[in-house]
Task: inverse folding
């Protein structure tokens, strides 16, 4: 719980800041008319076990229990008709560093957006050109919900997919949308961005940029299609010696794992992201993903996602031998040895690493706006050049039910099962299964 003195000081500081920034003649009602505020809170309960043969044996016998509550404070400021600023302040144990001891709020997402057509005197109801500066959200998937701390009500299931590759970094984005009143094509969108590979600041020598180009088409009848291209160029930071380079101190792409999930294991800190597929170092990483959706109504949704991600470098052990992912079993005379297991590999060698994957997700309301069922199946294959193509697949099945107590209160219950082959790049080592749930509010 936050210290009372610190709480009183923080509230006084916010009030003083608001008072000093308002013009002397402005009324508080005018300020509040231009401010949107949302507070989100989420509590989860899980009963999940790693399977026999996991990297960390202690994960195979876990207790059921409640996770740390997650909380988000979202503020949106309408500076004028064509300029808005936003900030999401969040306490997320699985998103920022600091391990289990870090109970504090952070800037999770913030930026300023400019309606360029409006600013230049050409506002339009059927087209929009938006420039965003600040934190840029990036994900190759479309048409489905994303989970970020307590912000989970747009996600029919629990957590994000194992190949979602979603993150936020610093940079600039330009997005253009055009809508049509009639015809087969209802709207299209084109967006592009450039970011640095950091949520903080990174100016070291040879640190490159990340690029994204996205296109979306929406058709009459609920059909949608989207294509996403990502490219990073962080590999020039590497310094090789005897064919091996260390990633210590380097900036890598944040989307190499994606955002934190809400499955947690006792042998790792609560900020670990160890349920995603950890195949690529995230240096010269590229992603191409095709998304298809059929959403004929608010009650029914089917989404298909096909993608491939690759990197010019492969994780390696200290001797320079290629390994399947950032976490891997040690090898003793050809026998897997848990004592030599590495959980956070930092050595890389030149050689293509890659993963091919597909995901299908569906949601159907049994009682409109009240009760729904949802399922997601994903499969990812480690197709890296230097890795054995035997037993190289991760599979995950999620089946959920959600119930809305009212329009702002949602409970979700889910069964999850993940299977990991020895050469798959999975970070648990054998997979996991169990039940989890989330109760969330937004007001």
Result:
């Amino acid at each position: 719980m936050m210290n009372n003195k610190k709480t009183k000081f923080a509230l006084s500081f916010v009030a003083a800041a608001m008072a000093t920034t308002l013009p002397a003649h402005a009324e508080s009602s005018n300020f509040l008319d231009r401010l949107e505020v949302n507070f989100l809170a989420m509590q989860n309960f899980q009963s999940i076990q790693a399977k026999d043969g996991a990297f960390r044996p202690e994960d195979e016998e876990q207790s059921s229990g409640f996770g740390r509550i997650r909380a988000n404070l979202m503020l949106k400021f309408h500076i004028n008709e064509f300029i808005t600023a936003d900030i999401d302040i969040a306490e997320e144990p699985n998103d920022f560093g600091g391990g289990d001891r870090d109970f504090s709020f952070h800037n999770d997402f913030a930026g300023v957006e400019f309606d360029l057509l409006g600013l230049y005197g050409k506002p339009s109801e059927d087209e929009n050109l938006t420039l965003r500066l600040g934190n840029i959200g990036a994900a190759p998937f479309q048409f489905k919900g994303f989970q970020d701390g307590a912000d989970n009500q747009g996600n029919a299931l629990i957590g994000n997919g194992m190949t979602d590759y979603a993150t936020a970094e610093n940079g600039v984005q330009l997005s253009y949308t055009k809508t049509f009143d009639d015809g087969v094509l209802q709207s299209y969108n084109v967006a592009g961005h450039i970011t640095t590979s950091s949520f903080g600041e990174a100016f070291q020598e040879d640190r490159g940029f990340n690029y994204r180009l996205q296109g979306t088409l929406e058709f009459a009848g609920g059909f949608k299609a989207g294509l996403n291209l990502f490219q990073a160029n962080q590999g020039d930071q590497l310094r090789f010696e005897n064919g091996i380079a260390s990633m210590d101190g380097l900036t890598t792409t944040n989307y190499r794992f994606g955002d934190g999930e809400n499955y947690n294991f006792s042998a790792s800190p609560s900020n670990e992201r160890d349920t995603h597929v950890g195949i690529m170092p995230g240096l010269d990483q590229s992603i191409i993903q095709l998304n298809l959706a059929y959403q004929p109504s608010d009650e029914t949704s089917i989404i298909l996602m096909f993608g491939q991600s690759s990197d010019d470098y492969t994780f390696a052990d200290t001797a320079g031998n290629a390994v399947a992912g950032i976490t891997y079993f040690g090898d003793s005379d050809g026998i897997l040895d848990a004592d030599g297991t590495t959980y956070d590999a930092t050595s890389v060698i030149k050689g293509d690493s890659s993963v091919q994957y597909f995901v299908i997700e569906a949601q159907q309301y049994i009682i409109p706006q009240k009760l729904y069922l949802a399922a997601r199946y994903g499969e990812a294959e480690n197709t890296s050049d230097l890795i054995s193509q035997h037993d190289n697949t991760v599979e995950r099945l999620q089946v959920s039910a959600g119930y809305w107590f009212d329009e702002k209160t949602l409970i979700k219950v889910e069964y999850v099962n993940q299977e990991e082959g020895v050469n798959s790049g999975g970070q648990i080592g054998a997979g996991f299964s169990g039940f989890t749930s989330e109760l969330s509010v937004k007001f």
